[in-house]
């Protein structure tokens, strides 16, 4: 996870260019795990809407590949007349479905032609499962279980004019309950904090385009592929 302000500094990590591609994945059958907490919503009937997606802290459209993976899960769920089961931190799939899904996704991952495609597929799959598994379980604002919501205790502040945070987050940290980076947009709001998920093409493009509009601060090396000056 990386935090930066456009006024103060730019990051020094490598850029992954955006590239759209389609993924076709087939998955096996489902069994429910009665011991795991499970989403009470039905993804088949209620897909991830823009309002729901942005409710988790993003200001972007729903990522294309995340939507594709969720659609495939919905089709499988409908064909089998069964509901997916999730449990544990991070909205992890449970039971026999998880085993079959892991096998199919591992095969799809190996078949992808480039490291960029592999990264984007991994990130989208992680985020898709976390979105579905966290429905009606986590508070959208603080990412804690609804019964432990801390939103009423958070004080909101404004940043000075012209300042902005960029929260560069690994997909495994997305909707993670003990993630402290989320406090940035809880405290300062999405108007002053942009969530950028690592490996999500749309997010990477938005972030790097934004950084490309601002010059590197004096003394910062390797800024957006440049040198210090």
From TrEMBL:
It catalyses: a uridine in tRNA + S-adenosyl-L-methionine = a 3-[(3S)-3-amino-3-carboxypropyl]uridine in tRNA + S-methyl-5'-thioadenosine + H(+). It is an enzyme of class 2 (transferase). Its EC number is 2.5.1.25. Keywords: S-adenosyl-L-methionine, Transferase, tRNA processing. It holds the Pfam family DTW. InterPro entries: DTW, DTWD2/TAPT. It comes from the Eukaryota. Residues 137-206 form the DTW domain. The keyword rRNA-binding does not apply. This is tRNA-uridine aminocarboxypropyltransferase. The gene is LOC103504245.
């Amino acid at each position: 996870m990386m935090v930066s302000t456009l006024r103060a500094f730019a990051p020094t990590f490598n850029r992954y260019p955006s590239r759209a591609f389609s993924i076709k994945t087939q998955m096996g059958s489902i069994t429910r795990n009665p011991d795991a907490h499970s989403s009470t919503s039905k993804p088949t009937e209620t897909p991830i809407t823009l309002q729901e997606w942005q409710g988790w802290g993003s200001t972007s459209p729903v990522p294309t590949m995340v939507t594709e993976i969720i659609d495939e899960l919905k089709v499988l769920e409908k064909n089998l007349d069964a509901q997916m089961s999730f449990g544990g931190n991070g909205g992890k799939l449970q039971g026999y479905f998880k085993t079959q899904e892991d096998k199919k996704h591992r095969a799809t991952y190996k078949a992808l032609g480039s490291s960029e495609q592999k990264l984007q597929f991994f990130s989208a799959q992680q985020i898709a499962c976390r979105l579905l598994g966290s429905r009606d379980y986590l508070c959208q604002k603080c990412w804690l279980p609804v019964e432990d919501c801390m939103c009423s205790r958070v004080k909101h502040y404004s940043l000075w004019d012209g300042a902005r945070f960029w929260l560069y987050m690994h997909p495994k940290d997305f909707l993670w309950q003990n993630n402290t980076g989320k406090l940035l947009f809880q405290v300062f709001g999405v108007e002053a904090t942009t969530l950028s998920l690592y490996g999500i093409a749309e997010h990477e493009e938005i972030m790097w385009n934004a950084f490309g509009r601002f010059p590197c601060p004096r003394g910062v090396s390797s800024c957006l592929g440049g040198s210090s000056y």
